[in-house]
Design goal:
homotrimer, 288 residues, mainly alpha, 14 helices, Trimeric intracellular cation channel type A (chains A, B, C), transmembrane helix (chains A, B, C), transport (chains A, B, C), potassium channel activity (chains A, B, C)
Chain lengths: 288, 288, 288
């Protein structure tokens, strides 16, 4: 009975890890990403004044992870733009979210039940990207474990890691913070995921890659869906991190969590994915 | 009779599109580019305090388009610096414009009739760069139409697209604007040119490349000469753009033009190539 | 007798130029580099709040020269991170300097006699990097003399040339200055060294490379040890530079030196390696 279960799990995870991402999952990824762009203060105004800048930002939100990973591996940063269908699909999503009459498309995809499904689908793509990034780096540098972690990390975090420069494109400059100084949950999870996939690639983690993909996807999707549904931005890692940082780096206990909350009043729009839904909608509406 | 005319036009455009750019046209390009650098407020002071920074800025003004295109295609950003004669010629122009006794060289090339000729020659180089950029990208990515447009665009716009970072090199930081948010006429024309040349490369535009080069060069040279002579910065695209943006992106009618003018008082030195000649000269003189 | 001396010198310099840098010299390089990172105001606070950002900055301090040189030559910027033992050693040094109980490691290596030895060893590595950078660029571009100088220069200067962006990672933004506008002694010396090694590679300097390496190392080590011991930041080039800049670029006589000092009161923490030891220690202590 248990063997059967294991066999099934193995088969399921294998099938799951071979599933194509285009177009359904990628579409969800583009929608959620450009939704977060529209939540950014000032982005609607930019879309009116300079459609080119707005389109470019949307492309960074959708393909930032590919751009960064290509840069890290010394390839052309626009390499991914050869996939015309992906770019066209993302451009269509950008157009619908920013310019659809009556804001209809935006209202549909920002409707919570729809959004929860899209968020879950986005995390499927994120996990696959991390795994592919680590694998790609492993192919180029067989023993470059640090490179594998770095490439997997940038593949998972995407535009967040270059948010300072993405904001600069929209005429916004907030040098006092960045995604490395104040990591949001998806960025942290991408780092931990990249480490796990690197350990797996180095045969230090006795688990099949497809199983790891399935497990990590389930963890990410559940976490993000729960966080989105509860408008929360607490991290499931907070407690462990707080203790590990205290022991290793002498950070004050509970500091990680406090640090996360403390700077909020001063610049309340810092992290991209962590604003409460209500505040976001009010801001977006006002901007229109 | 008409066949003869067509034959002649074909021959003329073919000869024109094969004409070498070095040294005459390139020289004009370097002179006009470094002239615009000298118009930038503070650049004369930088040339006194730190010749290395000033030289580097001058190189970015002259070779920014090559640097950006090489970065976009994943090549070495300093690849073009292997052409020692080009670098030496540009360095000579930089030296003469910034350090010539009695400011003699500057006075000669900034003399309006001379400058108009140089500006026209510069546009010849710009068009050729766009065509070469699109062709180069087409060679690397046969169906990468977006990549062709991007590479042609950066080849035509050059330093303008990285003006924030070029200014940073001189200790100036203006994050509230950039060339994508507020496109100047040459940047816009480069974008439209890159799209045209991409369509031609994709066989969607039923016209020979040499004819397109000739036509686009004539348009660019005429526009820029008229704009320079009249100290104007109105764009010939303004009316069409205004309507297209209104229909497609819901921008307020006439907004494109107003947006262009409105921010001027607050930061009057924003766009590199759009200051009135008089104001420029006064500023440059004061700075010396 | 003289022939013998020449032979010995040749042998010594040959042996010296073939000497391995790892681990002793590299260790000294990492220690001194991360020491300078700890002197930076706010870096200790960052190490408590965000160990990842602090580690990344430390890596930039240790491997910035490799990253920049790889970028310049179109390679992967993280190429050097395949050397796991180097990264682990540098990470260990980072951990000991920032988190060692009682600050013991920091106190040992910042103790002046120890530090003077480490500083001398660091200059050995710097010279070797410049020579290797020029050689590497010569291999890729046989007649690209400008590229050789640029690559040698970035190999010698390392993180200093990207200090604006390294500071941004720690949430600090000082756009009004950068290492090109206000070159510190090591950056200037790296430029001159890169020019010398390029001339040697182009057979315009009638001296063996090993002799040049030995001579330049001795000059750099002596200069830096004396400057560190005397807490001085005067440059041995000041007098010559002042005259050359006056003649070539019309800079006011003695201006180079004054320029260097003048902006100090306004932003007293501008250059990384030029603070007086006392001020640094006070600041570092306060920050802890």
């Amino acid at each position: 009975m248990e063997v059967l279960a294991a066999l099934n799990l193995g088969e399921i995870s294998h099938t799951f890890s071979k599933m194509g991402m285009f177009p359904v999952f990628d579409l969800a990824y583009y929608i959620v990403s450009i939704l977060y762009l529209k939540y950014e203060p000032g982005s609607v105004e930019v879309s009116r004044r300079s459609p080119v800048a707005s389109w470019l930002c949307a492309m960074l939100y959708c393909f930032g992870s590919y751009i960064l990973a290509d840069v890290m591996l010394g390839h052309s940063p626009v390499d991914y733009f050869q996939h015309n269908s992906h770019i066209l699909l993302a451009s269509l999503v950008w157009y619908l979210i920013f310019y659809c009459p009556l804001n209809l498309f935006y209202k549909c995809v920002a409707f919570l039940p729809v959004k929860l499904v899209l968020v879950a689908l986005k995390e499927v793509v994120r996990t696959r990207k991390i795994a592919a990034g680590v694998h790609h780096a492993h192919h180029a540098y067989h023993h470059g474990f640090f490179i594998m972690v770095i490439v997997g990390y940038v593949k998972g975090s995407g535009v967040a890691l270059m948010s300072n420069f993405e904001q600069l494109l929209r005429g916004v400059w907030r040098p006092e913070t960045n995604e490395i100084l104040n990591m949001s949950f998806p960025t942290k999870a991408s780092l931990y995921g990249a480490i796990l996939f690197t350990l797996q690639e180095a045969h230090l983690l006795p688990v099949a890659k497809s199983t790891l993909i399935l497990g990590f996807t389930l963890f990410m999707a559940t976490s993000k869906v729960v966080m989105t549904a509860r408008h929360s931005h607490g991290s499931p890692f907070a407690l462990i991190e707080s203790w590990v940082c205290h022991l290793l780096f002498g950070s004050p206990l509970g500091g990680a969590e406090e640090d996360h909350h403390a700077p909020a009043p001063a610049s309340p729009l810092k992290t991209k994915e962590e604003l409460s839904e209500g505040a976001r909608k009010r801001k977006t509406k006002k901007a229109e």
